[in-house]
Amino acid sequence: QMTSSGTMFKQILDNDSQASYLPIGIQRYGNTKKLFNTATSLNCSWIYEEELVNEISNENDEKIQNFINQNDCIILTLCMDVINASEAPGVSAPSSFGLSGKIVRELIRKITSHKKTISFDICEVNPSLDYDNRTVKLAANLINEVFMCVDKKK
């Protein structure tokens, strides 16, 4: 079986019956039907990118809060290729219809400010494809947002 960027998450779900997964900003047509079928069979839900164009709706805020409430701890991974290619060109799979940096910042603030969030990491950055260090600078600013939220939790 070939690996993909989602392989690590599936491996966690296959090996830990207590784990759950909520991809936020997934593209409906950027993923295969098999991926969605696998996610459904593993009892995962998701939030489409097109649902987060201008804001986090009450419905999606509730979905995020329910996910947090149903788990003992939250590990947040930001795949930088979820962000629009104009803001984050330095990724292996640029996204024409990706999320705005502002929406991602709002999601990071919402999730990392919760007491159950114990980890944050960034993946899918490819500096050799970056234009004017735009992606790396955005990633650094988003990491700073996490530090600001952690300071508020103390």
Please write out the topology.
Blueprint: H1 7-15, E1 24-26, H2 33-41, E2 47-48, H3 58-69, E3 74-79, H4 101-112, E4 117-123, H5 134-153
Parallel strand pairs: 1-2, 3-4
Key terms:
154 residues; 4 strands; alpha/beta; Arginase, Chain A; globular; two-stranded parallel ribbon
Can you describe what's shown?
This protein is of the alpha/beta class and 154 residues long. The protein has a single domain, classed as Arginase, Chain A (3-Layer(aba) Sandwich), CATH 3.40.800.10. Helices cover 40% and strands 12% of the residues. The chain has a two-stranded parallel sheet. The longest helix has 20 residues, at 134-153. It starts with 6 loop residues before the first helix and ends with a helix.
Offer a quick outline of the entry.
With 154 residues, the chain is α/β, with parallel strands linked by helices.
How far apart are the termini? 44 Å
Overall residue-averaged pLDDT value: 92
Sheet with the most strands: spatial strand order: 1-2
Which architecture name does CATH use?
A: 3-Layer(aba) Sandwich
